[in-house]
Give the backbone structure.
Amino acid sequence: MNKTTRFFIACMLAAFVMPAISYAQSTDATSLTITPPFFELNVNPGDSWSSSIRVVNTNASDLHVNAEVMGFAAGDDQGHGSFIPLSQLANDGDALANWIVVSNSAITVPSGQAVDVPFSVSIPLSASPGGHYAAILIGTGAPAAQAGESQVGVSSYISALIFVRVSGNIVESAQIHSFSTNKSLYQTPDVPFTINIQNTGNVHIRPTGMIQIYNAFGKERGEISINETSTLGYVLPSSSREFDVEWLGQPSLLDIGPYTAVLSLAYGENSTKSVTETIGFWILPIGQLSEVAFFIIIAAMLCMYVLRRIVRKMLANEIGKYGDVPEKNSVAKAKNKKVMVPKDDGTIDLRHPHDE
Amino acid sequence: MVYRYKFFKKDIIVAITLGLAIGTLMWTAGFSDLLFVHAASLTSVSDTLSDSRPGLPAAHTIVFTNPSSTTAGQTITYTFDPNTSAFGSVTSTSIANVTSTGMTIVGTCGVATGTVSMATTSYNMLTFTACGTIASGTVTLKLLSPGIINPTSTGSYIVRIAAGSNNADTRVVIVNGVNVTAAVATTFTFTVSPLATSTTLGNNATTTGNDTSSTLPFGTIAPNTHNELGQQLNVTTNASNGFAVTIHEDQDLTSNKGNIIHLFSNANATATPSPWTSPTNIINNPLTYGHFGITSDDTSSTAVGGKNFGTSTPLYAGSFNPTSTLMVFGWNGPADGVTQNVGAAKVAMRIEISPLQAAANDYVNNLIYVATPVF
C-alpha cells in the first residue's frame, strides 16, 4: 500500500467518522420545552385555581425533570426577575409561592412525548389585595458526582411565571420616572427615547400608549407605539421598567427646529388611568443648513449687487434731470483749501495759493 | 439723493435684521406657544376613563386643583380634544349624569357660594358658570354612565380645563386594552449542548477539552495553565418580550477535604467581566490559590441589562455564587434558537490554579442555568 492509497483510505475513514462525531455531539444536547411560560390570574381571597404546565421532550432519550416552586420578584428595570427560594419564604403567609402546590414534582417525560405537570393555587382568605408573584422551575437536577473526578455538574431549568391579582383594595398607581432622549440636538429625525415607568401601586400594571412627535408648528410628525404589540411588558409593584423606542422620521429641511414629544401611557385594569409627559429636542441638519446658508449668502450678495446697480442708474438719471449735488467729500475738501488775504483793496491778486 | 439712498439702505437692513430676530424667536419658542396666551396653570390635572377602548362610551373622572378661586360669573369649561373634536356625544351630557366635589352643580343659579350651574354644552365642551365664588382647591367632576363616546382611533387626546382665568391640559389615552385571565399561548424551549475541544467562541475564548450537556469534566488541572470547557445555549420562543438565561452555582468548587477553588477573580466574584488574570497566589491566602470564571459570546444582552463579555478578547465574570445570578444570554423579542445573539450563544467556564492550590481529584460543584421569559 503506497502513501497515496493510505492517505485516500484515511480520508474516507475520516469522512465516515466525522459525521458520527458530530451527531454524537448533537444527541448529547438536553432540550427542555414548556408551554405556557406565563400565567396571569385574577382571583378573590378564598379562590382555588388549577392548571398545568406541559413539558415536551424532543430529546432522543427519556427526560427526567423536577418541578420547583419559587418566589419571584423584579430583578431590574428590563423585565428580568429574580427567584426567591421557598426556604426564605417559610414564614411569609402572604407569599404566592406558599399557596402553590405542584402535585408531582419528579416527572419522567418519554422521548418524543409531552407530559402535563399539574399545579394548583389556593388563595387564603387572608391574602392581601394586589399583586403576588411566583415561578415554577422545571429542569434537570444535578448529575451524580463521579468518584475520584473533579467535575462541574450542570443542570438546566426553564421557568413559568405566575402573576396573581387578588381582589380587594387594589391600588393602581404609576408615574413616569423619566422620559428622555440621549441628546438634545439631532441632525436627522432619528431619535431614541428612553421611558422609565415606576409602579407606585400594589399590583402589576402593563402600561401601553404612544409617543406623539410634533414639529415647531404643532404638526404631528410621527407616532411610536409603546408596549402595544406585546402581551407582556409588565411593571411590578415597587419597581420600575424601562422601555426603549426609536423614532425614524422623514428628513426635510422644512421640518427643522424645535420638536416636542408627548408621551401618553394608559395603565390599570381596562387601561383606565393615564400619565403623560412632554419633552423637547431639536432637529438641525447642520451640514445641509450650512450649504443652504452659503447659497443664501451668495444670492443675497448678488441681489445687493443688482440693487446697487439699479440705484446708481436711478441716481444717474436723477442727476441728468436735476443737476449734480454736492459730492460726498466736497465740504471736507473745501476745509482743506488755504484761505489767502488779498494784498490790497482794489487790486487783482494773481498769486497761486502755494506761492505764499 | 445720496442721503436718501443711504436711508433707504439702512431701512432695509433694519427691517431684515428685525425680521430675522423675530422669526428666530418665534421658531425657537414654537409658534403654538406664542399664538396662545397662557394664564396661570391648574395643577394635579387628570382624567381617568372607565374604558379606554376606541369608540366605546366611557365615564370620566376629571380632577384638577385651582390655585385661585373662581368668582361668580366666571366659567369652568372642559373641552374634549380641542384640536379635532374626536369625542362623541358630549352634548348629551346633562345634569342628571354629572356629579362633582369641590363645587356643587345646581340646576338654577342661586347665590350660594361654591355652586355652579351647567350652562351650556357644545359638540366638544362642557361649560359650568360659577353662581358664587368657588374656592381654590381640588375640584372633581364625574361624568357618569353612559359618559362620552371615546374617539374611534387609538391615540392620546387633550382634555383642556379652564377655571376662571386659569387653565391646563391633560391627556387621555385610547388604546386597544385587553385584560385576560388566561395562560398566554407561548412556548419556550431551552437547549444546552456540549462544545468540543478547540471550539472558539465569538469573543475568541477557546475550549481546551470536551464536555457533555450535564457535566464539565475538568479532570486533572495543572498549575499555571487554564482549563476551559464550553456549552452551546439555544432558546426558541415566541414570547414577544424575549428571555434571559442566568447561571449560578450551588457552591464553590470544593473537595472532600474542604479545599476550595474560588470564584474569579481571587474569590472577589467579579461582577463586571474583565480580562482573565492568573490567581495571585499569595502565600497563606487560600482565596488567591485558584479561581473559576465564566464568559459568553452573546453580545445582544448588553442592551437588555446583560454583561459585556467582550467581542475580540474574552472577558470573565465570577458573580454567579448561590445568592446571585449572572445573565449569560438574553434577547428582547422572539427567538429562533439558531441566530447568534438572538437564539444562540456559547458560554465557556475557565479554571486556573496556582502551585499552592491543594491537590485533589474531587473538586465538585453544580452550575444551574435558568431560562426565564422577560415579563
About this structure: Chain B has two helices and 23 strands. Chain B touches chain A through 91 residues (CB under 8 Å). Confidence is low (pLDDT under 50) at residues 32-38, 179-184 of chain B.
